[in-house]
Predict the 3D structure of the following.
Amino acid sequence: MVTFKDDPSEKEHLSSSHKAPSGFPSWNLLSPSEEASAGKTTERRKRRAAPSLLPTQSVSAQIRRKKPANIVVRPVAWRRLGETEKFLLAAERCQGDGGIAVTLNLSASREHNYMSRSRKTQVRRLFQNQLNKALKEAGLSGLEYAFLFEISPEGRLHLHGVLRGAGLDETALKALKLALCQAAGKIHGRAAARQVKLKRLYDAAGWARYIFKVRKSTANKLATNGLMVMSESMGRLLRVFHEETRETRRVA
């Protein structure tokens, strides 16, 4: 039986209380010393000491900051949205519809192939072709998914993503795990049990911020700005979702 188990190592960035993930501390408007001397501090100095909570920079600029503001999706046409915004939309849309957060490790040979500078195809196309093939063989064609590549501080290439899990029963979830392992290159031995992690998605923004933490360095090492793999079905779903919620974000 496939179950969603809590992983202590991931509780920090998947929290029902929306705790900021590792590397993305929550905003602190005033430090303890400032609070202690609040009576002696003018309102002007208080405002200057507090960071702005309003997003005034582009999404990519926010992510590069040491203390990033919340990622926002601009109320612009779908074609003008960047990868970070589209992935956040995917996470938000999936969260209320059986959303599943995924972490997927690659086999050593698959990782070596993706990291090789001699490859002629972008890594996202390589992975998407293998994933679509595996999903088709598992009877899961048309599944809505979005993944982003990430290189850990230890130098290991892997993927994080979101899936729309509505309607997937236990049998389908087992087939999904096998398809993901097939697409990533099967890992053998003790590490096989940790190759794919499926968790219920209940903090879309927190999960997205956690994934974006090393996006710039990953793009540099892979020599590409295209790190996201999104299914056509997810793209169609998000276009509709974006148009439905676009005016709300414009007003906000």
Notes: The CA atoms of residues 53 and 69 lie 7 Å apart. The radius of gyration is 20 Å. The first helix runs from residue 32 to 36. The first strand starts at residue 99 and ends at 105.
